[in-house]
Write a structure and sequence with these properties.
The chain is of the alpha/beta class. It contains ten helices and six strands. It has one domain: 3-Layer(aba) Sandwich (Rossmann fold).
Length: 237
């Protein structure tokens, strides 16, 4: 029997995305200093630009995490399967799953009983994952969740009561202010059970020039990525 399962359980359209987009943009522009939420970078064009950023030689995070997931997938899988129970592997901000796919493939080959639940704000990314990932990893069971992290994590807990393994990669927590990071971790903790596992990526301290080059590349891809949000605002609002 074919175990491949792909199910989109919800959509951003379920909770009036346009109104929320407009409201949060206006709130950010009223504050001092003015700011725009980074989650709105990720429409179809933004997804494509970010994939280009991840492939730039200056963007060191991708290579670092690929090294971990290719070289340490066995150790990671053993830690995840320590309880020898079925589980759901929930990835917050999955993107194209380039890094986590190595772990997913290894778990499937080890006959682990799990469902992959990628969460992403981009409906385009969830659609791409549903189309590509289960064909690239035969036997992978997947339920895509399109929306905000905690709303979709709550939905994942309603869908399944199985133990959760949470992935939060790419140094995303480094995009948050300190107080915001505290609030995020507390909100995440409140949704986890004692046997759940959290695997989170943190960038380490390094030469500021290295960081600047990663986020201000000479080719101007990151600048285009940032400006794409202004294009979204002009076109959609």
């Amino acid at each position: 029997m074919n175990r491949n399962t792909t199910t989109a359980t919800t959509s951003l359209a379920d909770y009036d995305t346009h109104h929320k987009f407009k409201s949060e943009i206006l709130d950010g522009l009223k504050e001092e200093p003015k700011h725009l939420l980074s989650k709105y970078f990720y429409d179809k064009k933004g997804d494509e630009l970010f994939q280009q950023i991840m492939n730039m030689p200056e963007y060191y995070l991708t290579d670092c995490e690929l090294e971990i997931f290719t070289g340490k997938k066995r150790e990671l899988a053993n830690a995840i399967r320590a309880f020898d129970e079925p589980f759901d592997l929930v990835e917050l901000g999955a993107g194209d799953a380039t890094k986590s796919s190595y772990l997913l493939e290894y778990l499937v080959k080890q006959n682990a009983d799990f469902t992959y639940m990628p969460i992403d704000i981009s409906a385009n990314i969830i659609s791409v994952l549903e189309e590509n990932l289960t064909s690239e990893i035969p036997g992978l069971k997947m339920t895509g969740l399109n929306g905000e992290y905690f709303e979709m994590l709550d939905k994942a807990n309603k869908i399944s009561s199985r133990r959760k393994v949470i992935l939060f990669l790419g140094g995303n927590i480094g995009n948050m202010e300190i107080e915001e990071a505290y609030q995020f971790c507390n909100a995440l903790k409140s949704r986890l059970n004692p046997d759940d596992i959290l695997l989170i990526g943190f960038d380490l301290k390094k030469n500021p020039h290295t960081i600047l080059a990663a986020y201000n590349d000479k080719a101007g891809i990151t600048a285009s990525f940032n400006l794409n949000l202004l294009d979204r605002i002009n076109e959609e609002l």
